[in-house]
Amino acid sequence: MAGASSSSGGRFKYDVFINFRGEDTRRCFVCHLYEALKQRALDPFIDSEELRKGDDLSELFKAIQDSRLSIVVFSKDYASSKWCLKELAQILECMDRQRQIVVPIFYEVDPSHIRNLEESFAEAFAKHESNSKIDKKELESWKSTLTRATSLSGWDSKSKDYRDDTQLIGSIVEDILKKLIHISPSKTDGLIGMDSHMDKCLKNFCPEF
């Protein structure tokens, strides 16, 4: 589905950007989510370890801007990563500027702990505050960014509705498909008859649509 026209008249390169802390979720939840998205004919972006080295996040920021939807996977030690927080700020900027869809996933973490900076999130920000290299204004912006992100409708892995990660990922992918179908370029390109044709084709990928 990648390659849809962007709101600025350009072309989106990716359907989904996945924001996550690698040490927490890369080899378990995120890699399975990534593969599940690909199996449903979506083009997700997941960064390589090399892109997270150093302070230059220009490539990752460009990938965020080139995506139609961003998934934010909050995990226990998410806030300990400056890269995750900087990516999140960019994601919300794209949500405001180009109406990018943002879907938070709370993976084995209580949303209230993020919103109120409790437990591991309090510890993470205490370390950031003691780091003289981090600008205080940026630190405060990270806090407000977390508050905004947790107010968005998302998914909670601790919900009793899901017996395991496989079922949770299945539900998430179906939801992502529906959201992307809803903003399909055929809805706005004015081509006569294309809406119904596109809907029929996409039902093959999302039967519940």
UniProtKB/TrEMBL annotation:
Pfam families in the cross-refs: TIR
Keyword tags: Hydrolase, NAD
Catalytic activity: NAD(+) + H2O = ADP-D-ribose + nicotinamide + H(+)
GO biological process: signal transduction
Domain TIR: 12-180
Major enzyme class: hydrolase
Top-level taxon in the UniProt lineage: Eukaryota
Keyword Electron transport: no
Matching InterPro entries: TIR_dom (IPR000157), Toll_tir_struct_dom_sf (IPR035897)
Gene3D superfamilies: Toll/interleukin-1 receptor homology (TIR) domain
Keyword Ubl conjugation applies: no
EC number: 3.2.2.6
A single MF term (Gene Ontology): NAD+ nucleosidase activity, cyclic ADP-ribose generating
Protein name in UniProt: ADP-ribosyl cyclase/cyclic ADP-ribose hydrolase
Species this protein is from: Rosa chinensis (China rose)
